[in-house]
Design a protein that fits this description.
By secondary structure, the protein is of the alpha+beta class. It has eleven helices and 23 strands. It starts with 13 loop residues before the first strand and ends with a helix.
């Protein structure tokens, strides 16, 4: 490190580009930008003279041109390695002095846990090596951060991962950020405390795909990511089945290189443009799905009980088919929850410009022209109601009643509803609450989580039809 190593004589060193490396070179200096790094691995080394001492290895990847990138391993005293890890991050332009140039061996198992690179060599640093910041001319290196390490055209659609993830171990993924969860702390099997962050991305083929980020460097970078705006290319993302989510999810690993807002290839540009208007809120996803249903969907006459519907949903989930298909059925059920006059707002507010759902008075979408327009447009309202449906076999909770369907059922628009008195809202609720109804529902496996049950049509049930069609179990 700079404060623990003496100054070195640059004149006596031979600067070598990655494309010109070979194992016969000595006293070289390699300059490049860090495009990915892993958490240092600390271990105990036995020494006959001083007993056991803590050692560490830090692995990272550098690049000096569009075509050439290489893996680097820095071995040494744990304190020294941890100091280097803290000092340099993705985006740091560094000078690596006096590395050992080693030929990569395909049979080396360690290669399976490192990013795929173009160089036939790898660099190994030890106590005699030096790594310092490169002082000038760094912009051309900075531009390399937006160049993916693999062709973006070769990405795997998220729908393919969700539906056939059992045959995919690693995938190159191109997606737009949908949302970021809070950073959480977990304990590993070897009693280490580390941080992890879950994010969601989407593309044309799927509205949501979960990814767990384990590398501290990538977690730090994620603080600047924005929904709809940030595009990510993840090379060699690990794919695993999540028993908790009942879906396939992505996991960053030592092999993964994350490229933020990759240079505008055709695929990246098209995804960015799609991300500006794509439905990413649950409400919008349901609305889009309902609008896409064929005209005859409401006429479906397959009657099931709540228990049968629960069984069908669970069968899809346990069969690892959660992202593959949706279906519609009919329930003869009592409406046991319809909260129109309580504390929960039964509608959403959308920006009049970009149609993004907003929680405050103003739109916080950074790309919305409302920020610059002096002639404001009135916000839009849309019903978004949770209802519960019950029959003799059980209860189906948190069904979604929204959009034009809710307007038809309640016989009013959201704007008219807002102007109603509490007494009028209460009377409206009792049109259906605790009444037996014939309810058409769509079960939507749109997200990599519990499916959404959307109400397509509601009408008071005909007792004769109920007695003839309602299953007994």
């Amino acid at each position: 490190m700079e404060k623990t190593k003496p100054n070195y004589n640059r004149v006596a060193l031979q600067r070598v580009d990655l494309k010109n490396l070979n194992t016969n070179l000595t006293n070289v200096i390699v300059i490049g930008i860090i495009i990915g790094k892993q958490r240092p691995n600390i271990f105990v080394s036995q020494s006959s003279e001083s007993g056991s001492i803590q050692k560490a290895v830090w692995n990272f990847t550098i690049r000096d041109s569009m075509q050439h990138y290489i893996n680097v391993s820095y071995w040494g005293n744990a304190e020294r390695i941890l100091e280097a890890n803290d000092k340099f991050s993705t985006g740091s332009v560094v000078e690596i002095v006096d590395p050992q140039i080693i030929v990569r061996k395909l049979e080396d198992k360690s290669e399976c846990f490192r990013p795929m690179v173009t160089s036939p060599y790898k660099l190994s640093l030890n106590e005699r090596s030096v790594i310092v910041s490169h002082p000038d001319g760094t912009q051309r290196f900075k531009d390399l951060l937006r160049i993916p390490t693999k062709p973006t055209a070769m990405f795997v659609p998220l729908h393919d991962i969700l539906t056939r993830g059992q045959s995919i171990k690693y995938a190159d993924v191109l997606g737009a950020v949908r949302g970021l969860n809070c950073i959480r702390t977990v304990n590993t099997k070897n009693n280490q405390t580390i941080q992890v962050r879950d994010i969601e991305i989407f593309d044309y083929s799927a509205p949501s795909f979960k990814i767990s980020i384990w590398e501290p460097d990538v977690i730090t970078r994620s603080e600047a990511w924005k929904p709809r705006t940030t595009i990510l290319f993840l090379a060699d993302l690990k794919i695993e089945w999540s028993e908790f989510h009942k879906a396939y999810i992505g996991q960053t690993s030592g092999r993964t290189i994350v490229t933020e807002n990759p240079a505008m290839s055709k695929e990246t540009k098209e995804l960015y443009e799609y991300a500006q208007v794509a439905p990413i809120e649950t409400f919008d996803i349901v609305e889009q799905f309902v609008a896409s249903l064929p005209a005859g969907s409401i006429a479906v006459d397959e009657v099931v009980t709540v228990n049968q519907l629960h069984y069908r949903i669970n069968s899809r989930l346990t069969g690892k088919q959660s992202g593959s298909s949706s279906f519609t059925v009919v329930l003869f059920a009592f409406v046991t929850q319809l909260d129109l006059d309580g504390l929960i707002r039964p509608y959403v507010v959308k920006c009049g410009y970009c149609k993004v759902i907003i929680n405050e008075v103003t739109c916080d979408n950074p790309d919305c022209r409302a920020i610059f327009d002096n002639d404001p447009v009135e916000h839009e309202l849309a019903f978004n109601i949770n209802i519960s449906l019950s029959d003799h076999t059980g209860t189906l909770k948190k069904c979604k009643l929204g959009g034009p369907t809710a307007e038809e059922v309640l016989r009013c628009s959201p704007k008219q509803f807002v102007s109603m008195s509490d007494e009028e809202k209460c009377n409206l609720k009792w049109l259906y609450l605790l009444e037996q109804c014939k309810v058409h529902v769509a079960v939507i496996f749109a997200l990599s989580q519990t499916p959404i049950v959307s109400v397509l049509h509601v009408e008071r049930a005909n007792p004769v039809e109920v007695s003839r069609k309602l299953p007994v179990y």
